[in-house]
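Example S7 (structure tokens).
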């Protein structure tokens, strides 16, 4: 039977992700628009971005937060190009984005002492191979496979190397053990449903120390440069961005941070995401034709929830099209390099009631395309 109730909001894309419940663009504080981002009004807004992010996330003392160009990719690349080189690097990758970082490290930076610890879609590599004397590069949540690291117990508290963590689909949706992480990156358009283009770069004091004591042998473009005369450009981490940001996106991000605060902080956003995963877990547990791509339940992502179906790849495409045409789910096809299946965003801006409403439609669509 065709379900009668549709999700109130059919946006389940894994990025840009759904706007928060109650979002209304007309309520944004737009007093910064048309002004210089270096004028007091713009600088104050950007400084609030840095300070409020640190406060809402509960970052340890001494951690810096900066707004950088080119979204999450820009933030990761800045870190890789500025910090890697002095130590061997252990790269853990298990899906497309992590593989992209490995490619950069090996083929662009051409580092020679690189350990490639990779795993296929659905699995995690052997994290315990991480060497505390090496730098470690990994993705907290593999957005294209729906596999996350279960924790950071495999990272040494007494490590000498740095941990560089692409956490763009994890921050605000998963518990982050900040003390284990020296560089963390994310963007505004994922868990908070903000706008694209800007990257967030979080640095531990040890990451800053690396920047101030190591100069890479390759040239660094201006948009990657975080030091001057061997010292961190602290102003970048106080709102004086390297180049011009969109103040409209800044206003939108500050609005999303206000929303996080209004619902009870990061604990609440983490809970919203794990509740969304629970709905899908219950559905999968009671339907034998749908499966998590993540093999181990402990590694299941609560944001990019990746599922395989007992269907041919073409039938999965038909199902995705059908649900789109019905207006019940947009953008839920698996990532282009990942195994055929569904990817449903369960980040904090998605309402549990909408995930609940979606499940019967997936069942209906499955029956339709299996006929
Ligand atoms: C894990 C991961 N890394 C990097 C990116 C690239 O992010 P951006 O488009 O913000 O640069 C994405 C985008 O989905 C991602 O999921």
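Recovered sequence:
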């Amino acid at each position: 039977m065709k379900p009668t109730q549709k999700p109130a909001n059919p946006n389940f894309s894994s990025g840009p992700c759904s706007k928060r419940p109650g979002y209304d663009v007309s309520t944004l504080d737009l007093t910064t628009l048309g002004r210089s981002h270096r004028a007091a009004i713009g600088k104050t807004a950007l400084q609030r971005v840095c300070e409020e992010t640190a406060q809402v996330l509960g970052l340890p003392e001494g951690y810096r937060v900066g707004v950088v160009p080119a979204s999450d990719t820009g933030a990761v690349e800045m870190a890789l190009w500025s910090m890697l080189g002095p130590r061997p690097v252990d790269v853990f990758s298990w899906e497309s984005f992590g593989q992209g970082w490995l490619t950069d490290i090996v083929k662009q930076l051409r580092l020679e002492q690189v350990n490639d610890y990779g795993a296929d879609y659905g699995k995690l590599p052997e994290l315990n191979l991480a060497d505390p004397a090496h730098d470690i590069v990994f993705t907290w949540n593999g957005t294209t496979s729906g596999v996350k690291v279960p924790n950071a117990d495999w990272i040494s508290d007494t490590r000498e190397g740095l941990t560089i963590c692409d956490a763009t689909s994890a921050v605000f949706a998963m518990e982050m053990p900040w003390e284990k992480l020296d560089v963390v990156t994310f963007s505004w358009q994922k868990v908070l449903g903000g706008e694209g283009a800007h990257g967030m770069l979080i640095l531990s004091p040890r990451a800053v120390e690396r920047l101030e004591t190591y100069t890479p042998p390759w040239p660094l473009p201006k948009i990657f440069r975080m030091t001057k005369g061997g010292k961190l450009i602290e102003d970048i981490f106080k709102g004086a961005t390297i180049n011009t940001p969109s103040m409209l996106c800044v206003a939108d991000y500050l609005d999303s941070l206000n929303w996080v605060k209004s619902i009870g902080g990061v604990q609440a956003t983490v809970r919203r995401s794990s509740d969304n995963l629970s709905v899908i877990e219950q559905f999968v547990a009671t339907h034998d034709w749908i499966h998590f791509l993540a093999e181990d339940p402990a590694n299941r992502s609560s944001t990019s929830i990746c599922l395989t179906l007992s269907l041919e790849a073409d039938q999965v495409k038909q199902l995705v099209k059908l649900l789109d045409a019905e207006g019940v789910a947009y953008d839920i096809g698996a990532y282009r390099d990942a195994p055929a299946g569904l990817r449903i965003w369960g980040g904090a801006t998605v309402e549990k009631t909408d995930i609940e409403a979606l499940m019967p439609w997936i069942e209906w669509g499955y029956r339709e395309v299996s006929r």
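Notes on this example. The chain has eight helices and 14 strands.
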